[in-house]
């Protein structure tokens, strides 16, 4: 019965997310279209004045046509932008959501809860669900917790001030990207991305640059 109750509560939570995301998407699209058409209407209203100012010509008709051509270019870029942004959202427009069981009581209650279900929720577009995963963020979370102990659970190693936390996180990612050799890449991530072409030293460059 307990498993059935947990499963029911998880399904209820997942079902609550879908209408909220759909409503937010519709509201955002509506506001965006309203603002865009407001710009178009305003532009068309002042088309003659814009033509005289930005496209001065002896022929008033040519000046007006150039102004309206700029107006028409906006309508052409709308579908082009939709195709480009739509293709991007199809690749990154979903997220995987994990559901955990209730926190145990008694011995073992400090252990991470067991994953009982996972669902993939569409954020935007129609991405390929085969490529939706939490592996990258889980790997990054593990790397950060193992390399920088300020995020370790149930310890007093956390930063007492937010400024110290920012400095520790910045130092960690700077070391990870510029000093530490990636075992798979055989070079640093910064070198692989083309940001830098050499390996930083720990003391001479990392400490000196971050202490300024």
Specify the biggest β-sheet: 2 strands, antiparallel
Unreliable spans are 1-14
Percent strand: 5-15%
Strand order of the largest sheet: 1-2
Radius of gyration: 27 Å
Instruction: Work out the helicity level.
Output: 55-70%
- Quickly count the helices: 7
Number of strands: 2
N- and C-termini, Cα separation: 60 Å
User: Secondary-structure element sequence?
Assistant: HHHEEHHHH
Determine the mean pLDDT. Answer: 76
- Secondary-structure-derived class: mainly alpha
How many structurally independent domains? 2
* General shape: extended
Notes on the structure:
The protein has two domains: 2-129, no CATH class; 156-210, no CATH class. The longest helix is centred in the first third of the chain and has 44 residues, at 2-45. The chain is extended. The chain has 212 residues and is mainly α. The protein is 60% helix and 7% strand. The protein has seven helices and two strands, in the order αααββαααα. It has helices spanning 2-45, 47-54, 60-92, 135-147, 162-178, 189-192, 202-210, and strands spanning 94-100, 115-122. Residues 1-14 have low confidence and may be disordered. The N and C termini lie far apart (60 Å). Strands 1-2 form a two-stranded antiparallel ribbon.
């Amino acid at each position: 019965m307990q498993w059935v109750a947990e499963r029911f509560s998880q399904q209820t939570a997942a079902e609550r997310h879908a209408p909220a995301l759909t409503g937010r998407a519709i509201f955002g699209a509506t506001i965006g279209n309203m603002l865009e058409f407001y710009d178009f209407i305003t532009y068309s209203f002042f088309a003659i004045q814009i033509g005289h100012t930005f496209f001065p010509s002896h022929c008033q008709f040519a000046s007006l046509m150039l102004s309206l051509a700029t107006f028409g270019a906006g309508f052409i870029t709308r579908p082009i932008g939709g195709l480009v942004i739509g293709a991007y959202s199809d690749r990154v427009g979903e997220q995987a959501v994990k559901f955990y069981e209730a926190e145990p009581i008694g011995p073992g209650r400090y252990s991470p809860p067991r994953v009982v279900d996972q669902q993939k929720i569409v954020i935007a577009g129609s991405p390929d669900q085969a490529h939706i995963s939490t592996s990258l963020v889980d790997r990054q979370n593990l790397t950060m917790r193992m390399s920088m102990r300020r995020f370790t659970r149930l310890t007093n190693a956390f930063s007492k001030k937010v400024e110290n936390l920012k400095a520790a996180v910045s130092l960690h990612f700077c070391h990870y990207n510029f000093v530490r050799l990636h075992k798979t890449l055989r070079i640093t991530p910064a070198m692989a991305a083309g940001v830098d072409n050499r390996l930083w030293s720990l003391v001479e460059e990392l400490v000196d640059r971050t202490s300024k």
